[in-house]
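Dear colleagues,

For the upcoming journal club I promised to circulate an example of a predicted protein-ligand complex. I picked one with FE2/S2 (inorganic) cluster because it came up in last month's discussion. The inputs are reproduced below in full, followed by the predicted structure.
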Amino acid sequence: MVRHRVCDEGDIPVGGVRAYKAGGQTVAVFHLDDGFYSTQNDCTHLFASLHKGKMVKGGQIECPHHRTRFDIRTGKVVCWANHPPGVKLLNFLRAKKALRTYPVTVEAGQVFVEI
Ligand code: FES
């Protein structure tokens, strides 16, 4: 694992998310009320950019395309794609899959992601 500096602590307000390039990929960095977290930015359903999604209370991100919800802290699926209703027909091809998560550290006001 290699540590990558992605931003300053003040760049992401509490309740916010931003996407950054790090280690040859794009990661989402979330600022929750108990600290910073990072996951892959591509939704595991059909690859939408999660940083364009909606933050949901309790530490979840909702994908902007088909409303899959993920637990930001663990990457686990909370609710798989369900919008529009017909998207469920794809579920035999696109089974539930958790997000990869990455350790985040903050030092001297700078945020690092380990990839
Ligand atoms: S691309 Fe994210 S829910 Fe479909």
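Two points we might discuss: The CA atoms of residues 30 and 36 lie 6 Å apart. Residues 3-114 form a domain with the Rieske Iron-sulfur Protein fold (CATH 2.102.10.10).

See you all on Thursday,
B. R.
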